[in-house]
Amino acid sequence: TGLEFSPNEKTTVSETSLPCGSDTNMQYLDEMPRKFRRNFEKLLSRIVDKSADVKIILPVADEQKSGVTLKSTGCPYCQRGVSTCISTDNSPDLSQMSFMANPSLLALDSLNRILTGNTGDKMEEEEGQQEEEIHDTDCHTDEKSDSLEENDSAKEDLSNPLIYKNAMLRQSGSIYFLARAIVEAFEAVSCIIIGEKNEKVEGRKSATGSKEQNTECCLGCLSYLRYKVNCLSSIIDGACCLSDENRRLFCVVGHTSDHSSSVEEAILVPSLINCICQVVYKTSDNLNPQFHELFSDIGLAAFRTLTSLTHDNESAGLQLMAMYEVKGNVSEINQRQSGVAIVFRVLCHLVQIRHVIRSGGLGDKRNNSEKSLLSNNYDATIFCFNILTNILETSASHDARSVISKLQIDTTDSEELALRWLTRWVVGLTESYRNALMTGSFGDKNAKGIEITNDLKHHDDEYLVMAGNGFIFLACLMRQGDTRTVADSGNKVELSSHLKELTLDLRNMILSEMPTDQNGNGTRAALMIKSLKAFCNYYRYTIGELSVAIIPSVMLLISELETIKS
């Protein structure tokens, strides 16, 4: 078979199994289609390469050569002796461990490559990209078969390879196993984080004020979990694309309730909420850069998966309005709260952390770890905005708006409404280019005044994208609610009155934080409208035709904002 398993459960590759060996070893491939044979050969060679990488990677724990101070410990999770990284100085990336020898991860990596079409290698031009496209149709010639007509796949455009792939993934029954696999991985991460926090609490009690934190993470365990979570997240993200049914099915995978054996409780969305909260607050600790990178990558995978699930998905929206209690010692979320409240508080926490980093005065002299911190924070913040925006487009919108309008946040002075504080921060992102923004006509022939042209400066494009996502979220909050889309709509008259009142309060709260013009008059929604127009132009310029997936919905928001009376 090419893979031989020794008694100590380590994976080795026999020399006779090499795909590039004698011709007799590859005779069984002669009758296979050329494309399949070529890809299969690549897969076999990749298996060999990974095993070779394992042998090369193993001897990296030389303290004198690596510049890393290591402490030998026993990992309570993988039950083996490990080296825990205490401090590093120009050290190599010790997170590249030998877990790729694990056969389950090898299978997972293969599935991910098959579904995403990413082989990890650049195809040779002479192989002919056109030929690849022609032969790709070979995999879905049975799209008119009876098995497809009996289920939801018949309603989908199966001539689209992406839609066909997702329909086949659903019919295979894989969604259940993928959901449970990623939940189990996140639960393992949670065990590590909670175990650490418990140890830290006990340490503080006996250290009489000492601020030292004894980090005992197993680098091998975290690296394994990071790789597994990223693979699963990539697969689930792809499976949710253009497939409402797949998104719904991922959200209904559950287990038997502790309270009733006849009730199934969903597991994926609660697990994602718990992981996001734990990892974000974990990375706020003074972590070693390598551990910080691992935790950040795991957190981003959770953000990405939750963003995919909440897109146009009623089940996910309603689950985010359920009450949750985050595991572990998270000071700011120490009681049961709705999922949307937890995500919003995480967003505010990310903004606060970003402000601390930016105010450090390091400028371009930051080291690589701090730049990585800013990059991860940027991605996580945009994911939060997208998740909250997705919820506001479901029937949970009314309840979500009500929760968000009441949340409080601790500031340096006192407590204030979190939404008011967040709106000020989003407006502040436009400060460096606001003058050119407000005087720009954006194609309006009736615009008065002198238009100022100005190129975006360093970091301005980052601020524009962040502000654009923030204003999209704020604009969705300002939308007039519709009683037809509210989950709990028993009393239409009373609910309609409450919706109007809530909408008016949200609009006043958000618009009161908009800057004034040169005459001291409030700009109302003008800054939001022009920021969103600039946001659309930026996407048209940077990603071209792909911007069609974003711009139409943003332009609809702009037209709704323009109806708000000044």
Number of strands: 10
What radius of gyration results from the CA coordinates?
26 Å
- Number of H- or I-type helical stretches: 21
Strand order in the largest sheet: 1-2
Separation of the first and last Cα atoms: 73 Å
Average pLDDT level: 74
What structural class do helix, strand and pairing data support?
Answer: mainly alpha
Q: What share of residues are in beta strands? A: 5-15%
Largest sheet: 2 strands, antiparallel
Query: Approximately how much helix is present in the residues?
Result: 55-70%
What general outline do the C-alpha atoms trace?
Answer: globular
Low-confidence stretches: 1-29, 50-72, 82-98, 122-151, 201-215, 361-365
Briefly characterize the structure.
The chain is mostly helical and 566 residues long. It is 55% helix and 7% strand. It contains 21 helices and 10 strands.
